[in-house]
Amino acid sequence: MLSKANEGFPFTAILFTPSELWYSLAGHTQNSRSKSCYAEKQGCHYVYRSLFPLLPRTTSSPLRSFIRKTILSDIRTANIRTKNHKLNRAVQTMLFGMVERGMEAEVVGDKGKAKANSGNGHEGEEAMWAIVLTKELWKKGIWNDAKTVSIVALGCQHPVVKVQSASVHFFLGADEDDEDSDDDEDTPDVRSLHHRREINKKTRSGDKKLQKRLNHLKSKQKKKSNLIPTNFPAIQLLNDPQTFAEKLYDILNRYDKRFSLDHKILIMQLLSRVMGSHKLCVLGFYTYIMKYLTYHQLRIPAILVALAQSVHDFTPPDALLPTVTKIAQEFVHPGVGSEVIAAGINAIREICRRQPWAMEEDLLGDLIEYRKSRDKAVTAAARGLLQLFRDVNPGLLKRRERGKEASMGLTKGVKPFGHGKEAAVDIEGLSLLEDHLKQLRTEEGIEDGVFDEDDEGAWEGWDVNSDSDESSDGWIEVESDGDNLVVSDSEDEDGSKKRKGKQNETEGDVDVKMGEEKESTEDATTRISTLATTKILTPADFAMLNDLRLKAVTEAVEKGGGSATKRKLATLEANRKILAQHGTEETFISENDILGPKKKAKADYAERIASIEKGREGREKFGSLKGKKNKATPSSSTNKEKTRNKPIMMIIASGAVRGKKKASLRQKQRKLRAHIDKSKKSHH
């Protein structure tokens, strides 16, 4: 049964596909692929404009999967060697049109009756397939440009809720995290496989099975490492992020009663990440979110995370101050539990970390007093807030709470946060990298000052945007007609210092020796390096720089560094862990950062019974067979064995030992005499 032809499509949309027509369509597609029909403009237009309408309209599951695999494999094949921009633009235009066709419909929502009736229209199905195909092409690394992100960004404003949800999940990265976690759960541990092999019986078939599983794990890890990484996160490639954020807030505010809480939290999280990444100001969002800031609100940790992520250093403190006050009033008071207080203080700390001026002096003093609490989570949260303001704005703290370093900084005239920061003159720890490279060149016999700028190995595995078409033809040589112009660089200055040192050597050798000793004891971390002006630093250099900084701080801690050095070491280790997991240091906070450290909850009756039943698996119903199985004649353990295995505290409290302690002198004499008589009889 064929429907009426859609406008703009050369093929009719198939509603019910018989098996014969399915096989003929498959054969036609295979023949067109073998003739390189996709490489031509007319062929691409003909086949793709025929295949895309079939996805949302056909009821045949094999046909849908076939069309989906065909589209993905053909686009991937066309972009293997180089990017096929003509084909990509044509397909992206079709997908954009599929999403755009249903934008004029009314927003139904996913609450109540609307939840059962949502997603029945063809427009929603068509847009959903467009989003699914775009997400798969992005995930496989075939498309990673701004136009791909624009298709999914348009899906975030679609009136169908399931299209909105799929598009928002793309930006949040929740689908990829779930798939990775599922793969990790299914993948066995290599150490457990080897341990199981050592315990079980040694056979050749067991060795082959173990080697087969190890090879499978190795190939799986290799495939995972060979995934093409994107140059930028999808949020960074948004076109006009301010307008996108305002539209998201408009959807959230206008259709607040039509959406469920879970869907609203998804939009909140995306809006907050866009605001935090691009440093945008959507001030109505802070007014909107205040009605959810109560401790009994469902999924309140996710709402607090969204609030904290939306704050940045350009957010007006006046807009944040009512929000911080509301959190303190609802979460931090004696009438709630310790977990609620810890979550409230942690949320305020994360907000003030991004905007320290969103705090009043009296409120800060009250929050810091919770560091004397008996609960560990509350104490850690209050101490974290205190340490934050010691670093960024110690002026809001009382004098006895500032600490030694913050008080010394205020006396030296150190300005608080937001008041005229000094310009950066060097990369922190770059002198460590300079010394390390100098040592490597000395070992290899390379002269100082010679750098290999075309080192391809240092850029291997990193995304580099190189412009190969650029040339030096645009440079024009200009003769200098001013003799008074003096240009000095680090090499000339070093040479002048050396000449000056040679002149002073004849006058006094003592000064030169003192200068050499001073240079030898100079701290490498405080010296200003000129390496960045003489060498292009590669990503491998920055990775080595992080390792050298971590090593230097670790040595400082081992030599007896103060609390500031230990905090710096903890920060560097945390950044290194985040960098290894996510590939970038600019990560968003999670619900664990808001909840803080949690005590292990006491198991209830059902959990205890389940644990007992789990421990009984694999053994007899009553007693242990340990003593009976390990003997030639099965029997229980003897009293002597039981006495030997008794705990020392039970032996000390036994009647025999206590009787020895309470024995009288006469009893001890009779025991000793009996022992002597027995020993004499044993010799004869």
Automatic annotation (TrEMBL):
Q: Does the keyword Nucleus apply?
A: yes
- Segments traversing the membrane: none
Q: Where is the composition biased (Basic and acidic residues)?
A: 200-209, 502-518, 674-684
Stretches with biased composition (Acidic residues) = 176-187, 445-458, 466-482
Q: Specify the superkingdom.
A: Eukaryota
Subcellular localization is given as:
Nucleus, Nucleolus
Q: Where is the SDA1 N-terminal domain?
A: 48-103, 125-374
The UniProt record lists the SDA1 middle domain at: 475-615
* SDA1 C-terminal domain boundaries: 635-681
Question: Which ranges are annotated Basic residues under compositional bias?
Answer: 658-673
Tell me the leader sequence span.
Answer: none
For region Disordered, the annotated ranges are 176-211, 444-523, 616-684
Q: Which UniProt keywords apply?
A: Nucleus, Protein transport, Ribosome biogenesis, Transport
Q: Which family does it belong to?
A: Belongs to the SDA1 family.
General function of this protein: Required for 60S pre-ribosomal subunits export to the cytoplasm.
Specify the protein name.
Answer: Protein SDA1
What is the scientific name of the source organism?
Somion occarium
